[in-house]
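Issue: ligand-bound run for 2-keto-D-gluconic acid - logging full I/O for the record.

Environment: standard queue, default settings, no custom constraints.

Inputs:
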Amino acid sequence: MDKPTIIQVGSLAGSPGANEMLQSHYRVIALWQADDRATVLKDNEHVQVLVTSALHGCSAELIESLPNLKLICSWGVGYDTIDLQACHRRAIMVTNTPDVLSDCVADEAWGLLIASARHIAAGDQFVRQGRWQSRNDTLPLGRRVSGKKLGIVGLGRIGLAIAKRGQGFNMEVAYHNRRVRDDVAYRYYSDLVELARWSDFLVVATVGGSDTRDLIDRQVLRALGPSGIIVNIARGTVIEEQAMVELLQSGELGGAGLDVFENEPHVPQSLVQLPQVVLMPHVGSATFETSQAMFDLVLENLQAYFSDKALLTPVDTS
Ligand code: 8YV
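Outputs:
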């Protein structure tokens, strides 16, 4: 039997063996390798399924060029790079990879939090550069983590996993969310500025996209204050990046642990120069175990579609 055809927007090399595995099950049109994308798309107008990732996304233009498209399977939980309105208009189904990555993303958030508070990256440099041996040089004092106040912006699956870890550090946890949750005992703040004022650490775990753009603005960051630390494992667009840089520079904001940036992979030089920030290249889910689990979900959703079964992890596009 002929293999079903799928269009793949970008490489899934972040998950070892994924590209090869897709090719073994499907006839893959690798769009990112096409010299003449327009011709490739024209020749494959009949294709019903497209595979992408949180990074590569899927634009309205690409959706429009595939008149028979029925399903977009994305590797990643965030779908801010997929034009959901265009999907809704054409009743195109979308799947993502929730749950399987929550623990690893929460682990990374905690890594960034502790690294920022305790100067782990700076301390590593301090030792490597032989500065420990110099009697005139010391690493600046850090900030205590255990027992402090943890504010979480976005108490979804990842936010909950971050909160749970906070309890292990004897922290008081509070959150801001689109709506109050009735299944948790954490304190709810409807006002982000108030949450930031209360928090020692503010961790951003909300969805990206236009609804949350600049949600963490200058006022929120100022309320977090000179001893406060912001951690972002969500999307760079959620924080007003320029305001964050300025407040870090002036000392009005204490520190930052950042996995995501407004204009990736560009990281402002002004941020790179700051010693009180820890930077990571958008790798929250990037472990062997989780990238594999994410890819397994992509494959299972594809298999479900091609055998007329219900999709495992559909995204609500309404
Ligand atoms: C990254 C993500 O794609 O799932 C998402 O939405 O942003 C992450 O999984 C991943 O960390 C890249 O390795």
